[in-house]
Structures are given as C-alpha cells and as structure tokens.
Amino acid sequence: MEMAANSMLNTLKRWLLLDLLDGLWVTFKMQGTGNIATEQYPSDRPKVAERYRGAPRLNINPENNETLCIGCDLCAKACPENLIVVGTVRNKETRRLDLTTFTYDLSRCMFCGLCEDACPVDALELTQDFEMASYTREGLIWDRQMLEEGPRPTQYTR
Ligand code: SF4
Ligand code: SF4
Over the chain, what HEC string results? Predict the structure, then answer.
C-alpha cells in the first residue's frame, strides 16, 4: 500500500516537473553578483601562488644589457631531464666563457627548479609567467633571445 502511494507521488512529481522547478530555483537563487565565482580570464589575470615556478627567464644586467650568465653549464648538469643546452666560446682577451647560445626545451620541463637553484649568479630564473602554450613542439624550444625577452602574452581588455 505504502509502495503504491510512493509510486503515485513520484509519478505526480514527474508530471508536475517539480524536480525541474527545484533545479531552476537553485539556479535563480545563485544569480546575485556576490555568487559569481568564474574568473574573467584573460581580461582579469589570476594571481599565482608566491612560490609558483613558471616560464624560465635568462636575466640580463639592466645596467649594461649584458647577460648575467657566465656559461658555467651548472644548470644543464643539474637538470634531470637534460633539456638545457648552453653554448659558449672562450674569450681570448678576458679568458672567460662568453655565452653564444642557450636553449631550453619547455616541452620536457617539470619545473622542479633544480636548474635555477644550481645557478651561481641568479642568471636563470623560473618566473611567475604561466602562459607558455604553443601550437607546435618546436615552439616550446626557447632560444636565448626568447629566454631573455620572456613570454609576451596578448593583453586582453574588456
Ligand atoms: S625546472 Fe627542472 S626539469 Fe625544468 S629545466 Fe630546470 S632542472 Fe630541468
Ligand atoms: S648555471 Fe647560470 S650561469 Fe651557469 S650556465 Fe646556467 S644560467 Fe648560465
């Protein structure tokens, strides 16, 4: 008897679309501006965590515009993925290594930070930039120029 009553109640609820109205009520209840949780990216850029490690940058000295990198290769040796290649030539006058090329394969990077920790002169840094997507694998291999300039994401406005 009780089962039959429940079944009739359920059928009646279905006919009167009570579940649908319930759902609509929840939707309308959340329409107030205080309930908006969606981030309006890319016009509003999210703030990443302080210790976030993102796009790599090869720092240059702002006073003379020369690279801070001394070509010691320690970052490449520290990298467990072997994705950094540092090219240098010996300067006969200064007897120092001059940086010629620097490549960084982002597609294999796990952003562990071992390379920047290994750098003795803070030349290599993992920044807070997070937009590194590329349509091609080749686009993820950054050369010295890209590493010095850093990512240049499109700035959108509303
Ligand atoms: S963050 Fe880690 S995986 Fe990426 S280049 Fe540096 S050491 Fe290699
Ligand atoms: S560890 Fe630093 S200074 Fe040495 S090659 Fe890498 S970026 Fe350059």
Answer: CHHHHHHHHHHHHHHCCHHHHHHHHHHHHCCCHHHCCCCCCCCCCCCCCCCCCCCEEECECCCCCCECCCCCCHHHHHCCCCCEEEEEEECCCCCCEEEEEEEEEHHHCCCCCHHHHHCCCCCEEECCCCCCCCCCCHHHEECHHHHHHCCCCCCCCC
